[in-house]
Automatic annotation (TrEMBL):
Keyword terms, alphabetized: Hydrolase, Metal-binding, Nucleotide metabolism, Zinc
Swiss-Prot/TrEMBL catalytic activity: adenine + H2O + H(+) = hypoxanthine + NH4(+)
Chain ranges passing through the membrane: none
Signal peptide residues on this chain, from the entry's feature table: none
Cofactor(s) required for function per UniProt: Zn(2+)
Protein name: Adenine deaminase
Site (Important for catalytic activity): 228
UniProt GO cellular component terms: cytosol
Species of the source: Pandoraea terrae
Amino acid sequence: MPLTPQLAEKIRRMPKAELHLHIEGTLEPELIFALAERNGVALPYPSVEALRRAYAFHDLQSFLDIYYAGASVLLTEEDFYDMTRAYIAHAVADHVRHAEIFFDPQTHTARGVPLEIVMAGMERALAEAEIKLGFSSRLILCFLRHLPEEDALATLDAALPYFRSLPHRLIGVGLDSSELGHPPAKFARVFERCRALGLRIVAHAGEEGPPEYIHEALDILRVERIDHGVRAIEDEALLDRLARERIALTVCPLSNTRLKVFDDMADHTLGALLDRGLAVTINSDDPAYFGGYVNANYLAAFESLDLTAQDAYTLARNSFEASFIDDRAKRALIGELDRFWQAS
Ligand code: ADE
Ligand code: ZN
């Protein structure tokens, strides 16, 4: 069934949560150039257009190389504040009520930018948005999996003061960057420490990596959600387990097609995963690099796949159910979603 203008409008306007969003992946080329100029950083591209033209990726690594280069313009608290504010404006426009936002501290501390600057800039923007816009948010610190586990352990140590002083914001840890060759088991010790600290746990798994990495994320890291997870479709027993245990997948359709996980959106397995009873959610991953924010991801999936209004409701409901907010806040947001669908 083709996506009708009425359903497209409902999807745009329905309240939703975003659970898979890298804040460094929201740096639009215009902001990269503005921050480079403000900070006197030389960029290897002559113009915004030339930089945008470089966003032609053939796999995850070809994207990550450009993504880390883009993040090199972030130096001051103001830079992290401006980046976070710009994302919030996009999210609010897309009717995102709650976001759980990833950040990569090692990308910044390795360049000599103190964690204090990173945290202060993001927290100022998020606290302001909470008060002025009612925009709810949490932060999830991601370890870079291409680096040794010792680096992740040191990063956790450095972040302990923020887990203590910002418990309402900084709530958990994740695992991202180059997946192939860096299985979850490589990070068993650091995640064990995180669990002992009572932190929420997620990890990227089954984006490019095999279903075995999803098993490891569940069994060794003991994740509560799987980021991407689309390769679960290759493993029947895993699908049964994900459905039975209600382990949510934070799926990112435009990311998956831009990084050639699927050649075409029509090949995306999101619909099949939903039909199999999995708690699928739709998210934008790195919207500045992949062609759009969360609503663009919903609409791209609905344009190419055989999805219904009931699926739209289920996807948004899953996004609230799978979030790490408390039950009362969850019920309030799901109530808002229900009223939205009943009103039309
Ligand atoms: N870092 C930013 N986006 C990512 C993705 N899609 N996979 C792994 N690491 C990432
Ligand atoms: Zn991601």
